[in-house]
Amino acid sequence: MALDFAAAYDELNPDDDDHRFYAALADELGATRVIDLGCGTGTLTRLLASRGRAAVGIDPDPKMLHVARQRHGGADIDWRLGYSDRADSNSADFAVMSGHAAQVFRDDDTWSRALQDLHRALVPGGTLTFESRNPAARAWERWTRKATLRTLDTPAGPVEFWHETAWVSLPLVAYDTLTHNLHTGETSSDRDILAFRDGPALILSLETAGFSVSHQYGDWERTPPLPDSREIILVASRLA
Ligand SMILES: C[S@@+](CC[C@H](N)C(=O)[O-])C[C@H]1O[C@@H](n2cnc3c(N)ncnc32)[C@H](O)[C@@H]1O
Q1: 3.40.630.10, 3.40.50.150, 3.90.1300.10, 2.60.120.10: which CATH number matches 5-134+197-238?
Q2: Where does the chain show beta strands of DSSP type E?
Q3: CATH topology of domain 136-195
Q4: What is the pLDDT of residues 124-171, one digit of tens each?
Q5: If both were cysteines, with which of 44, 86, 124, 131 could 80 make a disulfide (CB 3.0 to 4.6 Å apart)?
Q6: Ligand 1 environment, Cβ below 6 A
């Protein structure tokens, strides 16, 4: 049996500094209605909803959303299967894409469409925030079996899990997620392609969609960005 990636996602990606950053930002801004685009298993959506906010979690992967619904059901979260066009107009004062979800939009057209949908979904003055890996920090060079190997205990036995970069053609990077069940010997390999946009490209895309960038950080401690910061963390407001 291959690794159930959606079921293992929370163990591989625990609630961490990134989610705490976004939750603190929502608190500071007094956000009351939030959208989490690319919500995955919904850990951040649930954290955002836990302070009495109305929350919408949108994701096109039915397996991820199934885990989200099972683990984080509740009347306060509206889970929606699909893409950014599932967000209602003028429905939120805070929108977020976490877990590097912003990098899944490989081509500029789909990225622009997502930003336009989030612009439409936010009230004027509402906040959009997300992070993207800084291409200058070359994260893909660290995606090797040696650096990323984890062994997970699953109902089907212990499964080794790791990433390997397949090719780099900036701004796109392809990487494989490989698994090996140590009991059955079964292996699997899945390829994903991510976009590594740099800071100026991200800011231009936001401005083109009608946002103004208010803050930029290079890490989750809100350090100003440096040329080789690992993250590009952006906070933007919807212009009227
Ligand atoms: C790395 S996960 C991040 C999940 C979650 N936001 C987190 O912080 O852990 C990226 C998510 O983006 C979703 N995704 C992929 N393509 C998408 C698209 N076009 N629009 C919105 N979400 C997408 C995937 O299904 C996946 O759940």
Answers
A1: 3.40.50.150
A2: 33-37, 54-59, 77-81, 92-97, 122-133, 150-154, 157-169, 172-181, 187-195, 211-217, 231-238
A3: SH3 type barrels. (2.30.30)
A4: 999 999 999 999 999 999 999 999 999 988 888 899 999 999 999 999
A5: 86
A6: 13, 37-40, 44, 59-61, 64, 83-84, 98-101, 104
